[in-house]
């Protein structure tokens, strides 16, 4: 299920870039946000110690900022007329699929300890 959802999300991103009507590869930059999204949470979980209550909110705030940036980038590019609105909507749909995959992975493989 995760592989199918991730594949659909990435297909939407690639379609936003490669369709002849759009033919610009700027929307592909959201993949960098996909790679950066789980990093703050992984760093916070790896460096757990007595002050875990301080690190968890900072990691969540940073993760939320990365996710919001990946949704904002195609909108800003479309408003600046760098990409077309159709490519923007395909990128946003791909974002939903990709982040649903990441979220399902983290909830599915969560350890018994939660913060």
Task: Give an account of the 3D structure.
With 115 residues, this protein is mainly alpha-helical. The chain has one domain (1-47, 54-113). Helix content is 73%, strand content 0%. The longest helix has 28 residues, at 52-79. It is globular. The relative contact order is 0.21.
Features of the shown structure:
globular, about 120 residues, mainly alpha
* Percentage of residues in helical conformation: over 70%
Q: Give the helix tally.
A: 5
N- to C-terminal distance:
26 Å
Shape: globular
**Proportion of beta-strand residues:** under 5%
Number of domains: 1
Care to count the β-strands?
0
What's the Cα radius of gyration? 16 Å
**Biggest sheet character:** none
Mean pLDDT, all residues: 87
Alpha-beta content class: mainly alpha
Instruction: List the helices and strands in order.
Output: HHHHH
Keywords: Membrane, Transmembrane, Transmembrane helix
Transmembrane segments: 12-36, 56-78, 85-107
InterPro entries: Vps55/LEPROT (IPR007262)
GO biological process, one term: late endosome to vacuole transport via multivesicular body sorting pathway
Reconstruct the topology from this structure.
Layout: H1 2-18, H2 30-36, H3 39-46, H4 52-79, H5 85-108
Helix pairs in contact: 1-5, 2-4, 3-4, 4-5
Subcellular location: Membrane
Transmembrane segments: 12-36, 56-78, 85-107
GO biological process, one term: late endosome to vacuole transport via multivesicular body sorting pathway
């Amino acid at each position: 299920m995760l592989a199918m959802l991730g594949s659909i999300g990435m297909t939407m991103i690639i379609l936003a870039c490669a369709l002849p009507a759009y033919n610009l590869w700027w929307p592909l930059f959201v993949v960098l946000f996909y790679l950066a999204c789980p990093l703050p949470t992984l760093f916070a979980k790896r460096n757990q110690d007595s002050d875990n209550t301080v690190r968890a909110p900072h990691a969540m705030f940073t993760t939320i900022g990365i996710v919001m940036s990946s949704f904002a980038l195609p909108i800003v590019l479309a408003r600046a007329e760098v990409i077309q609105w159709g490519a923007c909507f395909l990128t946003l749909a791909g974002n939903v699929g990709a982040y649903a995959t990441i979220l399902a992975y983290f909830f599915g493989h969560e350890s018994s300890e939660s913060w």
